[in-house]
Amino acid sequence: MSHGGGGHAAELYPENQILAIGTILAIMGMYISQFFPQVSMLLGGLLASAAIVAGANTTRKVAAYGLGTGVPSIGMLSLGMGIISSVAGIYLVNTVVKILGAGSELLYIIPIVVIVISVVLGYIVGRLTVKPIGMKIPVMVESMTKLSLMGALSIIGFCTAYAGGFLPNIIIPGSIENGVMALAFIAAGMGILHPFNACLGPNESHKRTLTLAVACGFLTWFIFSVARLDVVSSIASIVLWAVVYKEFIKQSLKDACCVYYTPEIPKREM
Amino acid sequence: MVIGLLIPFVEITLAGAIINASVHFVPVGGAPAAMATSTGIGTGTTQLAAGAGFTGLMAAATMAAQNGIDIFNPLHWIIILLSGAVGSMIMLGLTMLIGQLIYVFGVGVVPAADKCERDPITGDYQKSYITPGTTGHAIPTVCFISGLIGAALGGIGGALAYVALKQLGFSSEVAGIMAVGFFFMNAVLASYNIGGTIEGFHDPKFKKIPNGIVASFVASLLTGIIVVVMSLGI
């Protein structure tokens, strides 16, 4: 029942629970990609999809209030902040290591630094949308923080999975300088903004939106698997996507009031 | 060393404010404009600003990559910014022109603005041409000019952010992708300030522009600090 500021449909799972699971899985995925590069796309990509699902869920929560500018804007804002935080995290840790002469073990905290920067950036931008801009949405600040976090995690998650690690000497040539990060920007952005944009309306249900979010996460994973020419994860992701998407269509047909297959209007009066 | 970091820092902070201001000029009509029941281009602020800004960014990046162009030379710096502005103006100008052709010859409406009695530029009466129950149609002269000004500012803002990142020593790829993220952040902040549709600089909503600029200024200041500290680690 959530449309244009008209309150919310019942939640299947609490938002914070999905958010926590998404964050933990995405971080796990990054470390798995770093330490086991041979399965980086298979497991890292799969776990990075969790960040997309959590981001789509937060989009649903905040966009149900009616933003006035359409749902896509918030997905793009989330990814805009996310891309700044993820590139910043990589280079900032590099600065500390190079200038302060800290040990190179410090580079392993890059995902944590990315999370901290994205949360700070998201919080400040969220405050700015409330004052001076004056968005009257009660959950704006916390949602902006969460969206910035999920945007950053999905971008760096897929980039890490593609490059096979998040250390600067792996990810900068492997994902940033060849432009894969631009793919992560738009593909993950679509995954975050599309599910609620497609499902919103008077009969929106959390289950259906989440199912579509999972499908979008797998589809993003598939795009990256193909880009990396990884046969095993391409097949795994497209099969998983097909299963989830079939479930989504089934739910849509079930939730639709009635599906009539109307016959053609007769050419002449009987 | 400090001056070398300070100039890009100032540039990126200003770039955010300029990008935010530019979005307020672009005539955005959203879904009603797509049905020709309101003035402007029939899509959202973010999409339009992003389209114009990216084209500007591409034009600026192409210019910056030419042989013999030195980003630290003030004259070349101006040329890069201007090429960004022109690229962006061509993109938005063509979008408005084709949109206008469809509105006039396809939908069959008369371009008319609802937010002003007379068009501030041509001086033509507007009210008598507006269909009852709608808030204007298509893209009247004032909106077109406003859109071109907005596109020029957007292109300059995007180019300024790109040049600042290049001056800090980032490679073109990193500077490009960071500028895209930075552009989206400021464009969406502006679109939240507008909140839906705007006709251009004659629209009453245009008076909210200082709020947007302040918000973008603060957000860009923070991004500027992050970016300058980052650049030390290249």
From TrEMBL, chain A:
Function: Part of a complex that catalyzes the formation of methyl-coenzyme M and tetrahydromethanopterin from coenzyme M and methyl-tetrahydromethanopterin. This is an energy-conserving, sodium-ion translocating step.
GO biological process entries: methanogenesis, from carbon dioxide; methylation; one-carbon metabolic process
Family: Belongs to the MtrC family.
Record organism: Methanofervidicoccus abyssi
Subcellular location field: Cell membrane
Topology in membrane: Multi-pass membrane protein
A Pfam family it matches: MtrC
Encoding gene, per UniProt annotation: mtrC
Protein name as annotated: Tetrahydromethanopterin S-methyltransferase subunit C
TrEMBL record, chain B:
Pfam family, one: MtrD
Domain of life: Archaea
Single GO MF descriptor: tetrahydromethanopterin S-methyltransferase activity
Membrane topology: Multi-pass membrane protein
Signal peptide from the UniProt entry: none
GO annotations of cellular component type: cytoplasm; plasma membrane; vesicle membrane
EC number: 7.2.1.4
GO biological process terms, semicolon-separated: methanogenesis, from carbon dioxide; methylation; one-carbon metabolic process
Enzyme class of the recorded protein, top EC level: translocase
Transmembrane annotation, as ranges: 41-65, 77-105, 138-162, 174-192, 212-232
InterPro entries: MeTrfase_D (IPR005779)
Pathway: One-carbon metabolism; methanogenesis from CO(2); methyl-coenzyme M from 5,10-methylene-5,6,7,8-tetrahydromethanopterin: step 2/2
Catalytic activity: 5-methyl-5,6,7,8-tetrahydromethanopterin + coenzyme M + 2 Na(+)(in) = 5,6,7,8-tetrahydromethanopterin + methyl-coenzyme M + 2 Na(+)(out)
Protein location: Cell membrane
Key words of the record: Cell membrane, Membrane, Methanogenesis, Methyltransferase, One-carbon metabolism, Transferase, Translocase, Transmembrane, Transmembrane helix
Role this protein plays: Part of a complex that catalyzes the formation of methyl-coenzyme M and tetrahydromethanopterin from coenzyme M and methyl-tetrahydromethanopterin. This is an energy-conserving, sodium-ion translocating step.
NCBIfam families documented for this protein: mtrD (TIGR01112)
Family statement: Belongs to the MtrD family.
Record-linked HAMAP family: MtrD (MF_01097)
Subunit structure and binding partners: The complex is composed of 8 subunits; MtrA, MtrB, MtrC, MtrD, MtrE, MtrF, MtrG and MtrH.
Protein name as catalogued: Tetrahydromethanopterin S-methyltransferase subunit D
Organism from which the protein derives: Methanofervidicoccus abyssi
